Amino acid sequence: MKKHNCLDIDRIAFFGRTYAEYMDMFGLDESLLRQSQILDCPAGASSFAAEAHQKGIDVTACDILYDLTADKLMEKGKKDLQHVFEKFDEVSHLYVWKYYKDKDEAMILRSRALEIFANDFPVGSKERRYVQAEMPYLPFSDRTFSLVLSSNFLFLYGDRLDFNFHKACIKEFLRVCSGEIRIFPLIGLDFKPYLYLDDILSSLDSDDIKVEIVEVPFEFQKGANKMLKLYL
Ligand SMILES: C[S@@+](CC[C@H](N)C(=O)[O-])C[C@H]1O[C@@H](n2cnc3c(N)ncnc32)[C@H](O)[C@@H]1O
User: Fold this and answer.
1) Which of 61, 66, 145, 203 could be 43's S-S partner, Cβ–Cβ 3.0 to 4.6 Å?
2) 68 lines ligand 1 (CB under 6 A)
3) What is 158-201 written as a DSSP string?
4) How much is the pTM?
5) Residue 217 C-alpha to ligand 1 middle, in angstroms?
6) Where are the domains of the chain?
7) CA-CA distance, 79 to 45, in Å (whole number)?
8) Cis peptide before 42, with omega less than 30 degrees from 0?
9) Superfamily (CATH H level) for 19-231
């Protein structure tokens, strides 16, 4: 197998992590979640919203594909999972095999998340816990949420989402949020830090926003163990 230095996938995968993985990626504790109105954006096939709902935690999940049916999302999720995991072997030397002991364990967790998500989706979308949205525009009033979580999209897909798109998404998060925004990871599919992070932060041009880069107890892509926190 030829080794590569970049995860060479041809799409933004409809993919998702579980509640437990979110807790670690974002360094969360449940007491914060219980007192927050949370937006997960984009949420993809993550089971975070479904599992949080079971615990009585208030989460709204958004994704561009949430106008599809649960069956179609399940089908798309399975296809994307297969595509990503086929490409994985080319770059497996660039991952830290500690959080997941091997590829099978990571795959099992992604499949579990997809299944929990798809089971919750029909009822959850009627209850407006799953909302279709095409970023950077979010169909919510100003300051609807106190905590915005965004993982495995901004910065990660910096090879195909441009600077202005990143900037517009973060400005939109700042509009719909009254408290805190967390974004993970800060590196791309090429395993290198997102080049324009400082430029984006200076473009936000508000003295009222506090910025922190915080280490988290999660590392799968080598070097991807930090999140960006913005406080209002
Ligand atoms: C890898 S998933 C993120 C999953 C989840 N946050 C996690 O960490 O498990 C990326 C998602 O971005 C969604 N997406 C792509 N472009 C989008 C856009 N312009 N607006 C909203 N969602 C978008 C895709 O449909 C996909 O589900």
Assistant:
1) 61
2) no
3) TTTS-HHHHHHHHHHHHHHEEEEEEEE--B-TTSSB-TTHHHHH
4) 0.97
5) 22
6) 19-231
7) 12
8) yes
9) Vaccinia Virus protein VP39 (3.40.50.150)
